[in-house]
Specification:
Length: 264
Amino acid sequence: MTRSDGYLLDNRQTEAAERFTAFATLFDPTTFRYLEGFGVGSGWRCWEVGAGGTSVVSWLAKKVGPTGKVVATDIDTSRLTPAARPPVEVRVHDVGAQEPPGEGFDLVHARLVLVHVPDRDRALRSMVKALRPGGRILIEDADPALQPLTCPDEYGPEQQLANRLRQGFRRLLSDRGADLAYGRRLPRLLREAGLRDVTADAWFPLASPACAALESATIRQIRGDLVAAGLATQEDIDRHLANVASGTMDLATAPMISAWGRKV
Ligand SMILES: C[S@@+](CC[C@H](N)C(=O)[O-])C[C@H]1O[C@@H](n2cnc3c(N)ncnc32)[C@H](O)[C@@H]1O
């Protein structure tokens, strides 16, 4: 398993599964709308980069059917095993360090991946190279610098604490080489990579049960890192988790930028 990248949120921890479920609830409807718009269907060859869990991969598998192919790659494929049967092929692969796992893809998709990859320029080049002429690429990445708050409506100490912990999370990510303003760069980067018809938009929820589930799982997963880095105390974290569990907090995510284009 190649884990030379320093990725913060280990897929093998139990909280990772909770995070993938929350991502699916929050972001799959948007992702699937774009993919439907591209016309993904029978016989398509797709590369799902940094697939994480199974929701997008399983959706693609149903769309492409037995004559298609879905190559699902990740540096850690431990959560992908349930989807590993034709037309899905699961491979351990570092998108920032290895050659693409094939060529001539009709679709290449990555969600919440490139922001974490230190050599994200190489990763993007590799993803574009793997497309067939006319193929589509959809890159979706958070831009936490665009909207950095867990609680944009910071009206009390609970919200202030939530925002302080989010700031700590951002610090941990950037210390590991994440680009927290990557999302906004995507349309330009896709254009510069030679893609045509480049389009992008942004979306984020301001409050939803899935946001609370994501916040709780994320904070529990990075608890040790936050405390070790002096960014929070155990008491801060216990208090915040109790606040989140109370169901009275309006918790937002970072904006998700979705950018897509077509290879000529
Ligand atoms: C935040 S999760 C997103 C998972 C999934 N794409 C989703 O939207 O639910 C990021 C995923 O990227 C993977 N990842 C991180 N660095 C990677 C790299 N260099 N190459 C491939 N995958 C990587 C992680 O292992 C993890 O599964």
